[in-house]
Every structure is written in structure tokens, then in C-alpha cells.
Design brief:
The complex is a heterodimer of chains A (348) and B (334).
Chain A (H helix, E strand, L loop, with lengths): L36 H15 L5 H13 L4 H13 L4 H14 L4 H11 L12 H11 L4 H14 L5 H13 L4 H12 L28 H17 L4 H14 L7 H5 L2 E6 L2 E7 L2 H15 L3 H18 L4 H19 L1
Helix pairs in contact in A: 1-2, 2-3, 3-5, 4-5, 5-7, 7-9, 8-9, 9-11, 10-11, 13-14, 14-15
Chain B lengths: L20 H9 L5 H7 L5 H14 L8 H10 L17 H13 L4 H5 L5 H9 L19 H13 L8 H10 L17 H13 L8 H9 L20 H11 L8 H10 L18 H13 L8 E2 L4 E2 H9 L1
Antiparallel strand pairs in B: 1-2
Helix pairs in contact in B: 1-3, 3-5, 3-14, 5-8, 8-10, 10-12, 11-12, 12-14
InterPro entries (chain B): PGGT1B-like, Prenyltrans, Ptb1, Terpenoid_cyclase/PrenylTrfase
Catalytic activity (chain B): geranylgeranyl diphosphate + L-cysteinyl-[protein] = S-geranylgeranyl-L-cysteinyl-[protein] + diphosphate
Cofactor (chain B): Zn(2+)
Chain lengths: 348, 334
């Protein structure tokens, strides 16, 4: 073997432990893997230093080498974190280094857990370090829906209690301005505005263990925030009526505020225009299938009491079933049957 | 197999699409000679998963003896560590994701007894490893000693423990309570409380609730609505709103729908046609979408997706475990 470690005097004291991949015992039905020589050598030294539980600068450098070759190597990350804390390294420098790895490997779980492990250290980070959010925005510039980054950011918000930080809502506004269809950003916005706060259990919505009708409903409602957010959603819907996210967001906002869907009946009707000639309905102009769905839900709720409203609900659902969303015809049929079944019950 | 539509079966299946099962069987059996793909999909860190993916796909394709049984058992056992858990490959630290693949593989091969005969302790030892990963405070599960929390780990834990008949080694009620916190207003579930709904995480949460016997906690109409919204005009399914379709979501979305009895809410014929377009009829195997390079991960979840749809010639899959139904039926009736 003629690798860089075997020829490095710094590593002369270490006896590398070779890979046991099961191939020698015939225990590998799916064959051995063509690893690169560099990787095979580096991991053989890793096994040796880990077995000796060595905490040193050279071991730290070795973990870096291996992480750059294979960031999915979960064990090496645990070892690295242990060394970083034991040697009392500058964690800001460690974060800086991690930024580079993150930008190189966009879809990796371990990188983000490592960051969370570092950031959890109250001694080093009693408050949010100033460049952290800048870096996350740099990540979003690569992939604005990166699930790992969003999950980490949500953790940051809870850890440092950032729900009302001006930076949070500014970043969300900026991301939604550049892509109003970014559902991840809408989800984060919801958590900032209506998610459980620090004195509440860590749930995705308030009352998450409650009955379905109460899930997401706030005990104390700031009506101004509800109004503001409904207004914001309407502005975004007008820009792109077929974008599902703000419609879903508005449902969540109304739920949080304990208000009915029917508050938006007038707004939704602007996207579903009946064309009449001499009083007869001849056509419907639909500018958003989500508005049709919204109206169907409103009419279905009210329709239990009134037959003509139920008929309107069925008309909306048929529009979806036949013209605007036929791929889900069985779902729309189910909804129609629910309403017709209710009528049968009501008249029985 | 029945092509009738109804709860649990997708509507209107066409049978005129050409599936190439023999090609797929050959593809999996010959994975060892495809170093270029192996490097990506069966790298050291996925190897035990890879064995489970390949073996399960072969079972569903009607070729349960496609891999040499003894070699497969030997390999699984060689990945076990002293703490009872399994690593991705020999000499690798134990992690829940590989431990569940090990258990599923041994169960599929009807070789759980080998743990007592030849392993580093019987199945109790695996149970202890998994039980030690439960976070006592929240009921969630870590993947390993590092402490990362993810609903994938929780699902894996309940999956493996239930297959071993050891579910009572953990606090199931607490795990269920944690899963409830991962539910979002749209009816979906995320990787942790407050995280965006994601079809892969929906599968793990609903699967875990199914194992815990608590599907009554799922808002089936709302979740079914969100899941069925994942189908795009081309028939394929995505994992989140405004994302691209991917053959593996045929499984994550499809199995979740099947578990809550709403699989017929999507267009099964269009989905089946999409999945078939993802196969490579020359080399065998399936890719994430048409004309992309195939791999064993997408091959399993494409085949399993077809199985959910009742596609002719493919064995029935268990939507909770992603294992042949004939095997889970035997385990749980014993």
C-alpha cells in the first residue's frame, strides 16, 4: 500500500486495521465494493484511532478527510464531535468548515445533525451566532425546499426562541417573494405565527393530541395577526390562484383563530364565475380549482341544514371530478356520497 | 390477482402494459457485477439495506430463492455488533436503520432462529438494543448513541420489535403520543414536530401507528386528501407539494393510502403506467423517473408500488412492513 498516510511520519506510530467486508468468509452475497484506494487507506487508520479512542489533532484531520470522501459515514461524525469538544476547538471555525461540506453535499442527514450537536452547546452558543441565518439563506439559494435545512431552522427557532425575530419573517417574505410556491416556506411561516411556543409541548400544531376538531386551534387568539395573515395569503393567491400552498395556509390560519371557512366565501367566489344567459346557468369560468374546493367545503358544511346549499356543494364537487381534477375522481365521488348520504339521513 | 376497485385497491387498472419481471430478477441477481451502481447504492453505508431491498423485490417478483440463502444469513449475522444492533456492514457501528433491515431479512428468510444458534445473543439482545434508543422523555427514538431523532427511527424500532414479538420492551403509548405531535394541519406528518409534511415521513408515522394498533388517531379523510393530492397529471406521485414525481413515492404514498383504506382515491392505472415507464426493459431495474439510471432502491419501491395496485404477476405486499404479505401473515398468525 502506498497511500498518503502510510508514507506520513505523523502516522508512523499507528498500525492500520484493514476493512473486514465479509468477503473472505464468503459471507457477502452481494459482492465487495470497488472503494477507492484512498478511502480504504483512510478508513483503516480511522478504525485504528477509534479503537484506541485517540483524541488528537491528527485524528480530527483524518475525520475531515473521510467526511469529504463519504459524508454518509455516520460513525466518523460521532467521533469528530467528540474530538471537537474534547480539544475545546473554536466552534465558530467548526461551523465555518461545516458550511463548506454542506454546500458540497446538499442531501445529507449527518451534516445537519452535527450542526445541531454543536449549536446545542449552551456554553459556546448562549445566543444565535450572527452569521447563522445568512448561511441558511445561502443553502436556500441552492435549494429553497431542502428538507434538512428547514428542519434545522425550525429547531433553531425553538432553541433560541426566535418566533418573533424580525429576521425570521423577513427571510420568509423574501423566499416567498422569489417563489410563492415554496410550501416549505409557507410551513415555516405557519410555525412562526401559530406554532406552539416555548411554554407549550413541542408539537407541529397546538392541541396536537386533542380531538380532530380542536387540533391547531389556539387558546388565546391575536385577531390582528389572524387578519394580517389572511390578508397576506389573499395577496399571494391573487398572484398565482392555482398555487395550493396559500389556500392551505389560510385554512390553517382560520382554524388557529377558530373562525369558519365561510369567512372566505366571497373571496373564493371571485375565482369561480357562473355565466348566465337569461337567468340560466350556461357555463362556469374557473380561475382556481382550489377555490372550487373551498366553496365545496363551505357549502357541504352548511348543506346539512339546507338542501339547496347541499346541491351547490355537489355541483362544485362535480366540477372537480369531471373537469378540474379528474385524476382524483374517486375522492370527489366519496365527498359527493357523503353529502348525498347526509341528505338521506336528514330526510329519514 | 383481482383487479377490482374498492377500498385498498386502486381504480381502473390497465393490464396491457409490459412489465419485464425476468429482466428485473436478473438485474437484482447480478447486482454484484455492476460495480458502478453498487458504488452508489450498495456502498458500505447502505449494504444491509441493499440486501433487504434486493431480497424483498425478488420475493415480490416471485423469485424468493434468487439469492443464496446461507450466504445472505451469514452476511446479516456478520453485521451484528456486541450491543445487539446491526451495522450497515461488518465492523460498522450499530444503527436502527440497519437493525430493521437485518430483522426484516432474517424474517423473510425464515432464519430468526439463527440469532440464537449463531448470533451474538438471541432476539432479546436486539430488543434491548432498540429499547435503549427510546428517548424516555418524548417517546421518540434515536438512530444510535449520537442522539439524532427522526420518525424513520421510531417506525424502524416498532417494525423490528413487532416482527420479533418484543413490542412490550418499549413504551408504545409514549411513542404514539410523539407521533401525534408530528401531525400537521394538512393531515400529513413530518420528520419531527413542526416539520413540513413529507410523504416518506407520513409512511413512517402511519406505519408506526398501524403497528401500535392506533390508526384510529389518524384523520383519514384529511390525510387521504393530502396524499391523493400527490398524484400529478403524468400519473406519478411526489413527496411534497410542488415537487417532482419519483417512482419511490409510489410506495410511500401508496402504502400510506392503503393503510388508511384510501388507495382508490388515486388513479391506479395512471400510476401503474408511470411506474412501468420507469423500468429499463434492457438492463432490468427501475429508476426514479423515466430514462434515468436504475438502482435497487427504486426497483424495490416501484415493484412494491405495483404490488399495492394489484398488478398481475406480482406477489401481494404488506403495506405496513414492505415485506411479502405471505410472510407477515405467517408471522402474526403464529
Amino acid at each position: 500500500m502506498e497511500g498518503k498516510y502510510v508514507s506520513d511520519p505523523e502516522w508512523a506510530s499507528i498500525q492500520p486495521i484493514p476493512l473486514n467486508d465479509g468477503s473472505e468468509t464468503g459471507a457477502m452475497p452481494m459482492a465487495t465494493i470497488a472503494y477507492s484506494d484512498d478511502y480504504i487507506e483512510a478508513t483503516s487508520y480511522l478504525r485504528a484511532v477509534m479503537a484506541a479512542n485517540e483524541i488528537s489533532e491528527r485524528a480530527l484531520k483524518l475525520t475531515e478527510d473521510i467526511i469529504f470522501m463519504n459524508p454518509a459515514h455516520y460513525t466518523v461524525w460521532i467521533y469528530r464531535a467528540k474530538i471537537v469538544f474534547a480539544l475545546n476547538k473554536d466552534l465558530l471555525e467548526e461551523l465555518e468548515w461545516l458550511n463548506g461540506v454542506s454546500l458540497k453535499y446538499l442531501k445529507n442527514y449527518q451534516i445537519w445533525h452535527h450542526r445541531q450537536v454543536l449549536m446545542s452547546s449552551q456554553d459556546h452558543f448562549p445566543t444565535l451566532p450572527p452569521k447563522e441565518m445568512d448561511f441558511l439563506m445561502e443553502m436556500f439559494a441552492q435549494d429553497s425546499k431542502n428538507y434538512h435545512v428547514w428542519t434545522y431552522r425550525h429547531w433553531l427557532v425553538r432553541h433560541f426562541k426566535l418566533w418573533d425575530s424580525p429576521r425570521e419573517i423577513a427571510d420568509i417574505n423574501s423566499l416567498l417573494n422569489s417563489d410563492v410556491r415554496n410550501n416549505s416556506a409557507w410551513n415555516h411561516r405557519y410555525m412562526l405565527r401559530f406554532g406552539p411556543r416555548s411554554d407549550e409541548p413541542d408539537g407541529g400544531m397546538t392541541n396536537s393530541n386533542g380531538p380532530p376538531s380542536e387540533k391547531g386551534r389556539l387558546a388565546v387568539v391575536d385577531e390582528d395577526v389572524v387578519d394580517e395573515e389572511l390578508q397576506y395569503a389573499q395577496v399571494q393567491i391573487v398572484k398565482a390562484p392555482e398555487n395550493r400552498s396559500p389556500w392551505s395556509y389560510a385554512r390553517g390560519v382560520l382554524r388557529a383563530g377558530g373562525r369558519p371557512l365561510s369567512e372566505w366565501t366571497g373571496f373564493a367566489q371571485k375565482f369561480v364565475l357562473d355565466k348566465r344567459e337569461q337567468g340560466q346557468l350556461v357555463d362556469v369560468e374557473v380561475k382556481s380549482s382550489h377555490a372550487v374546493e373551498w366553496l365545496a367545503d363551505v357549502y357541504a358544511q352548511d348543506g346539512a341544514a339546507q338542501e339547496s346549499t347541499a346541491a351547490e356543494a355537489v355541483r362544485m364537487l362535480n366540477l372537480l371530478k369531471e373537469k378540474y381534477d379528474p385524476i382524483r375522481r374517486n375522492y370527489w365521488d366519496y365527498r359527493i356520497q357523503m353529502i348525498l348520504g347526509q341528505e338521506v339521513l336528514a330526510s329519514a | 390477482m383481482s383487479l377490482a376497485s374498492g377500498p385498498g385497491r386502486a381504480a381502473g387498472l390497465l393490464s396491457d402494459q409490459e412489465l419485464c419481471p425476468e429482466k428485473h430478477i436478473e438485474y437484482i441477481k447480478k447486482l454484484d457485477s455492476r460495480k458502478d451502481e453498487l458504488e452508489y447504492w450498495l456502498t458500505e453505508h447502505l449494504r444491509l439495506n441493499g440486501l433487504y431491498w434486493g431480497l424483498t423485490a425478488l420475493n415480490l417478483l416471485g423469485c424468493p430463492d434468487g439469492l443464496p440463502r446461507e450466504d445472505a444469513i451469514n452476511f446479516v449475522l456478520s453485521c451484528q455488533q456486541n450491543n445487539g444492533g446491526f451495522g450497515a456492514a461488518p465492523d460498522h457501528d450499530a444503527h436502527i436503520l440497519y437493525t430493521v433491515s437485518a430483522v426484516q431479512t432474517l424474517v423473510t428468510l425464515d432464519a430468526v432462529d439463527e440469532l440464537d444458534n449463531r448470533g451474538l445473543g438471541g432476539k432479546q439482545k436486539i430488543g434491548s438494543f432498540i429499547a435503549g434508543l427510546q428517548d424516555q422523555e418524548t417517546g421518540s427514538f434515536m438512530g444510535d448513541e449520537w442522539g439524532e431523532l427522526d420518525t424513520r427511527f421510531l417506525y424502524g424500532a416498532l417494525n423490528a420489535l413487532s416482527l420479533l414479538g418484543l413490542l412490550d420492551m418499549v413504551d408504545v403509548a409514549k411513542a404514539v403520543s410523539y407521533l401525534q405531535k408530528c401531525e400537521n394541519l394538512d393531515g400529513g406528518y413530518g420528520i419531527s414536530p413542526g416539520a413540513e409534511s413529507h410523504a416518506g415521513q407520513v409512511f413512517t408515522c402511519v406505519g408506526a401507528l398501524a403497528i401500535a394498533g392506533r390508526l384510529d388517531l389518524v384523520d383519514k379523510d384529511r390525510l387521504g386528501r393530502w396524499l391523493s393530492e400527490r398524484q400529478l397529471d403524468n400519473g406519478g406521485l411526489n413527496g411534497r407539494p410542488e415537487k417532482l414525481e419519483d417512482a419511490c413515492y409510489s410506495w410511500w404514498v401508496g402504502a400510506s393510502l392503503a393503510m388508511i383504506g384510501k388507495l382508490h382515491w388515486i388513479d391506479g392505472a395512471k400510476l401503474a403506467a408511470f411506474i412501468i415507464r420507469c423500468q429499463d426493459p434492457d438492463t432490468g431495474g427501475f429508476a426514479d423517473r423515466p430514462d434515468h439510471t436504475v438502482d435497487v432502491f427504486h426497483t424495490l419501491f416501484a415493484v412494491a408500488g405495483l404490488s399495492l395496485l394489484g398488478f398481475e404477476g406480482i406477489a401481494e405486499v404488506d403495506p405496513v412492513y414492505c415485506m411479502p404479505k405471505s410472510i407477515t401473515r405467517k408471522i402474526f398468525s403464529a
